[in-house]
Amino acid sequence: MARIAVIGGSGYAGRHIVAEAAARGHAVLSVARRIPAERHTGALYIEGSLADVPSLVSELEGVDVVVSAVAPRGDMAGLVRPNLAALAATLPETVRLGVVGGAGGSLVAPGGPRLVDEGFPEAFRDEALEMIGVLEDLQAGVSDRDWFFIHPAGGFGAFHPGERTGTYRDGGDVLVTDADGESFISGEDFGIAVVDEIESPRHVRGRFTVGY
Question: Helix, strand, coil % (nearest 5) of the chain?
């Protein structure tokens, strides 16, 4: 079993990753600025923030995988990219780093434009561009650290939680859509996709999209 830390473990994506990893018997550390009232057996909950990398690194000692599920919105706008870069520069290179990005960096077709460049909602554009910057930093990195970057479906979020199906599709670089052109994945199935990647890495130093 792996020792997995989830930064932003009380947020929508983070709590589903924590729940799935704990249910599979992994040792899970959920890091968030506030400890949630709802907790999962097998997970340890601590207070911490991506905005305080020195303190965070001391809490992450001994983990095998760190997953950041922190979105660059609210008081974290503009802070996720530089702090993830600082975290990547500080963690031991044996620690695998996973990042939950947004749908905006997904391609709309093979070799095609990014979703963020195709009529993307202006209210979420800055957030999408910051997470694309995180991906670019990972791709340009010169260390030997392994990492993965996962783009959820366009309809992923607390506004549309959905249900657990136990299935999902991997779209590579391309946004996953169904036969009607809709892009969606439930919180629980997104958690499954992330923990599957941790248990059986298929995207070594790479990104991928997930949906139905």
Answer: 35, 20, 45
Provide the domain limits for residue 141: 3-211
- DSSP letter for each residue of 66-113: EEE---S-GGGTTTHHHHHHHHHHHS-TTSEEEEE--GGGSBSSTT--
What's the predicted TM-score (pTM) here?
Answer: 0.97
Do the beta carbons of residue 132 and residue 201 sit within 8 Å? Answer: no
Residues of the chain scoring pLDDT < 50: none
Cα separation of 93 and 53, whole Å? 16
- Structurally, the chain folds into a number of domains equal to 1
What end-to-end distance do the CA atoms of the chain give, in Å?
28
Sheet holding 147-151, edge to edge: 43-47, 27-32, 3-7, 65-68, 96-100, 147-151, 206-211, 169-172
Cβ-proximal residues to 130 (8 Å cutoff; 6+ apart), any chain:
72, 77, 78, 80, 81
- Residue-wise pLDDT for 86-110, tens only, equals 999 999 999 999 999 999 999 999 9
For residue 44, give both structure tokens: 């340890």
pLDDT of residue 38: 86
* Residues belonging to the chain: 212
Model pLDDT for residues 63-87, shown as the tens digit of each residue: 999 999 999 999 999 999 999 999 9
The CATH number assigned to the domain holding 71 equals: 3.40.50.720
